[in-house]
Predict the 3D structure of the following.
Amino acid sequence: MVLLIGLLLFGFLAHAEDSEWMAAHGDSVKLCDMAIPGAHDAATGHGFVGFRGLFVGPFARTQTLSMSELWDAGVRAFDLRPAVKDGILPIYHGSERTKLNFREALEVIVQKLREHPSEMAVILLRQELPGGDWAGLIAQAIKESGLELMSFSESMTLGDARGKVLVLSRDDVAHCGVVRIHGWRHDSVVSVLTNNGVNITVQDQYNCTKPGALERKKAMFEEANSADGWVINYLSGYTRPRSSKSSRHVSEIMRDAANQLSFVKGIIMCDFITPGDRK
């Protein structure tokens, strides 16, 4: 009985620590020097809609946890890809519609920041499918959500960011404090520029069938640790056949590579996050 109580208490404390792990860091720490865990296609843990959705899981799913569960596991960067459908903003992965919409995702983040004001969050936005007033609807949803957006700079600190959200978008958004990224490509490692002049180094090579692709992704860990400024490093990727199984395989390879280092810097976007991965 004592052992059982001890295990339950340990699990509770570990859960609480991951829910507000930024509380252990000082206000003066530069955000770009931190390791910030992120979820690639974060909404896919909610599943997919319709009859077709029953069959796309093996191909389109990259997470098994909900947005709330991802937060509780330590995730602070969320890759969200809304598109306009019938005047609202459901979140997609490719052509597959998840059961979560953009406003619901924002509600989760707002609530978590209210519960844990020591934390901050990053949203990486992309318009997944063309059409509709995407820019206007995104801006309206953000304004009505109650999110407090932060200004973006290379020198911004955790103290500047607590309780706030940094929204980085690959597509134009009507003026509402969202930071626009220019020059994002799906190849090896690229330097992108935001609309306020901040450089970000991005590794988003998801096609790991290319010769040397996995080695390039692994090498980015050490390059990020020695780089100045902001880094976004996608661990996610696939080999053939393209499926959740191959994505898990890539994730395992990248986790093993990361675990060989004492520290990994940057916004680190991962597939199939589970509680305990933040360590």
In short: The longest strand covers residues 96-101. The CA atoms of residues 32 and 228 lie 8 Å apart. The helical segments are 2-19, 50-60, 67-72, 102-115, 134-145, 158-161, 213-226, 244-259.
